[in-house]
Amino acid sequence: MRVMGLDVGSKTVGVAISDALGWTAQGIETIKIDEDRGQFGYDRIAQLVEEYQVEKIVIGLPKNMNNTIGPRGESSQKYGHYLEKRLNTSVVFWDERLTTMAAERILLDADVSRKKRKKVIDKMAAVMILQGYLDRIK
């Protein structure tokens, strides 16, 4: 069973996919979106779901540190509910607090340039979201 992990932002969606056994997450790509123009990358996600035979989607839920859900979290929930209906696929929300910061720290420690970090940060955050979920269910 393959699982897809998504880190949904206002400008990009980081995408990760699990291996066939559901043990490890690999970053696949970063999809450019534009919320203001109503471009959300749904078609590309649908293509990836079909290509990788994804059975479940895990979407990072950016909660506030006090465990409340703010506007970004509400946007992620709306995104997930739309995908669930459109793709007829199970969607799970995963607490993603600090994953982008953790991904940034890993890339800094690996001495990745600012320009390269910007290109991979969302994909890496998606990997961390998905791997956290996979570790939890095992």
From TrEMBL:
Record keywords: Cytoplasm, Hydrolase, Nuclease, Ribosome biogenesis
Domain (YqgF/RNase H-like) ranges: 1-103
Top-level division of the source organism's lineage: Bacteria
InterPro entries in the record: RNaseH-like_sf, YqgF, YqgF/RNaseH-like_dom, YqgF/RNaseH-like_dom_sf
Pfam families: RuvX
UniProt EC number: 3.1.-.-
Main location: cytoplasm
Compartments (UniProt record): Cytoplasm
Function in brief: Could be a nuclease involved in processing of the 5'-end of pre-16S rRNA.
Family: Belongs to the YqgF HJR family.
Designated name of the protein: Putative pre-16S rRNA nuclease
Organism: Bacillus spongiae
UniProt lineage: Bacteria, Bacillati, Bacillota, Bacilli, Bacillales
Annotated gene: ruvX
